[in-house]
Sequence to fold (262 residues):
Amino acid sequence: MNGLKDAKKIVFKVGTSSLTYATGKTNLRRMALLVRVLADLSNAGKDIVLVSSGAIGVGVGKLGLAEKPSDIPSRQAAACIGQCELMFTYDKFFSEYGKITGQLLITKSDVENDERRANLINAFDKMLQFGVIPIINENDSVAVEEIAYGDNDNLSATVAKLIDADALVILTDTDGLFTANPQTDETAMLIPVVNEITPEIEALAGGRGSTRGTGGMITKLHAAKAATAAGISTVIMNGSAPEDIYKLFDGHSVGTFFKAKV
Ligand code: GLU
Fold:
């Protein structure tokens, strides 16, 4: 039992690789399933916040570009386009279950500035009181490299701390943290529970993830470290089967569970 049965306020983070096909187009089947599960958890009385990546990736797909551009203005533009498409799709799917969504685009400077941070927290609190499902992304059109979180793993931990969440669930394209790289080493085993993120654990993270996503395992471990240090249990699990989220909140072991420290 993972102790998540009673978690009330939950932040989910979903990565670009879980939301899009290799073509760069949205994976509607995946998104529809994820939305249904989150809407259902909301019906069950949980407060749900979704940190969703995909703005740049979906924008690139929509513009028909062969790959993610390397220059910042093109990425900014792609984010403007993709964010719109993402929110349209989320809003459409959540509406099917009578759920209202609200978009919050955040930059690091918003969180670091006391007044804007307080405003952000107010907006979150009010949306949750209204039963709305806030959907968060970094404001990629204005948060250029030097001032950006850069990856939504980090951002999701920040959001979890801002709203004092009970749990953070990071959905990705692998089953969790393994003892070795499962793509290249067949002896690699999934680590079901991590009590403490030591340098040895961090060394298991390897390099970057897919070409569509940003962070890879290391940024997820950093997020887990920040969240668990703030008393927020964190799970890294595969986003390909969103219904597994039910098992998690029934208390079963799914993916890798990082125990909250306080
Ligand atoms: N904010 C970026 C986007 O929506 C994604 C960052 C990430 O992949 O973590 O495209």
